[in-house]
Specification:
Layout lengths: L1 H4 L30 H15 L4 H12 L31 H14 L6 H17 L18 H7 L7 H9 L5 H7 L7 E3 L5 H4 L13 H10 L9 E3 L11 H7 L6 H4 L5 H9 L3 H15 L21
Antiparallel strand pairs: 1-2
Helix pairs in contact: 2-4, 2-5, 3-5, 8-13, 8-14
Amino acid sequence: MASIWLIGVVAFLAIIPAGKGDGLSDNFYGESCPSAEATIQRVVEKYMAMDRTLAAPLLRMNFHDCFVRGCDGSVLLNSTANNKAEKEAIPNQSLRGFNVIDDVKEEVEKICPGVVSCADIIALVARDAVVVGSGGPSWSVKTGRRDGVISREIEASNNIPSPFFNFSQLQNSFASKGLDVKDLTVLSGGHTIGVGLCNFFSNRLYNFTGKGDMDPSLNTTYAQFLKTKCPNLADNTTIVPMDPSSPLTFDNHYYTNLEAKMGLFQSDAALLTNYAANGFVDEQFDQDCFFENFKNSMQKMIEVQVLTGTAGQIRRQCAFVN
């Protein structure tokens, strides 16, 4: 799944305990802004009607937010004269959908100024985008998150899992957020929608070990297809669907692709190198099982190290601290 958050040369930080979502609740805005979630869904539906490809980047934005400082909306903050924000990190330079978040925030502010956090908006938008835009499963989003006021490029580079990770690196990265091997395997299934840039997998085609070789774990027919899309190692603009058979539909094809050695990224193929993860891959061949597991793991992930109560703030604009 590393590459759902995709893209980056990542250094490791020490594993830290992850929060359990204390302070979040169902229908948190029931009294303070009862139409908030309906308003958010309406805006998401508008964007999905115009561009279904936004579902994947909005889901990815949710991952990138939660893997840095927890789910606090820090990925939305702009850089300042004295600070490079998370948006500047290599893993986040290809993020898109910020306009959707800004539009949602503007509409919610019209009805309930200063009430609904940007951190909650990211979580709700990701869920609604997957359901409306790609036919994926829905999951419960408890609300009550507050917004962080710190956003640092280096922290994004250090915490977002890389598409070049091996299994041990992936496992350590997820464990640092309180997520286990099953969560890692199931959340990787988010790669059933969306695209990847050539330069984050083309080493598997042309120079896997530095000797001009191909990754032996990659399906040779699939590799030849990828070479027609990515003709050299220098291509850093071309995008390729992560699931070539149904790139806009949220389904379990990611796992059948893995079995056929057609995982796009090195981090995808890494799941097959671990016994436990391999077993969880097999479980997802049942799509109903995958949807249920994805729902459960998303609910865990979006409650990582949240700010609640009096911590943080409710930002008036998502790109700026108050």
